[in-house]
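Input sequence (433 aa), recorded before submission:
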Amino acid sequence: MNGAPRLALLLTGNELMTGDIVDSNSAMIAGQLLDQGLSVHYKVTVGDDLQLLKQELERLASQFEILIVNGGLGPTSDDMTAEALALASRQKLAEHPEARAHLEHICREIGMPLSPANLKQALLPEGCDIIPNPVGSAVGFFMQLKVCEVFCTPGVPHELKCMLEQEILPRVSARLDEEQKPVRTRLKVFGFGESSLQQLLSDRFPDWPAEIEIGFRASLPMLELKLQTRQAHQALLEDWTRRVRSQLGAHVISETQTTMQEALVTLLQEKNKKVTCAESCTGGLVASLLTQVSGASAVFEAGFVTYSNGIKQEVLGVSAEHLKTQGAVSEVVVREMLLGALARSHADLGVAISGIAGPEGGSADKPVGTVWLAWGTKETVKTAALRIPGTRKRFQMVTATIAMDLVRRELLGIEEPANYLIERALHKSRSGQ
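Predicted structure, token format:
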């Protein structure tokens, strides 16, 4: 990116140095900057030491054109960013009228008096400009220091995110020439890991163009595939995006930040269908994820968490004989769980789950990570047995997402099996009554 401004990050706080807080903010900042065509050239973390902060501000401001400082804007004595920048810029600390007005507004909203401790957040270096904070008490601010434009932001992630999106990124990206700005496609993919997706792309597209960069971002349970190029190659990007989508088919959930549960709720609304779920090893996670989505009440009316064998019998009508002879983690039991949930709700289709989340409870024929799923309607039930390795938490999240994806595919009428039904299969999938 010739001509792009050189950019650095300065993170501050003893809690970052001791490991009490994991630094996720710098990853968010770097990711959002990269979306604008900017790279972070240098990053440093400094504890709550006024002189060290002052020295780092002076050093970085002499070497970089943009510096984003994160943390140290709170009301307590260990919040030193404003004071350190005042020292570095040889400016006085003074009460900023906009910052004070913001604090007064926040205090009125929550019905609390404006305390002297709160007023510390309005003491800023003279000559700085405010970065509004629509979701918190600490305003951000920016000012010129030597050759560098310094942006100071709070450490609270959602406050930082608002400032980045609304104020900082527009100012920073305006410094780029139009041809330097990237264009990209983001595909939310479910059913492939990074290595298997990379291998598929390498095998299917040996002639991949050098002008288009490929990036992967794994975020359990989904995978983001990013295709990026420059403005001059936008038509090429559109063509290759179509090719990739064609190869991945229904494994592509969306081209936005949509979650699986959001995609499923939207599809249920479009199809005017209702879904139910009967869960054992996932402990109600499917129901919880679906009901996090606004509008879920129109398409989800009941979920059944039947953890014990007795409750599977009493609530869903699962056969005691089948539980005894086949076990709770079996095809016949998940089939009966699904039919029981459908019979006891007004849902059009559903999914049932029973498995061994671990770390104990496995056996030679049903190792830890084994899960049986049944999905479909009263007329057509499909089943599959999978092995989902990993921690208990990972097992539950991946299994719940697979369950929702199976319902999504059923609604779309997709017959081709998902990649996970092939890669993770314990037994051949079946369909029918």
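Checked by second reader. The chain has 16 helices and 18 strands.
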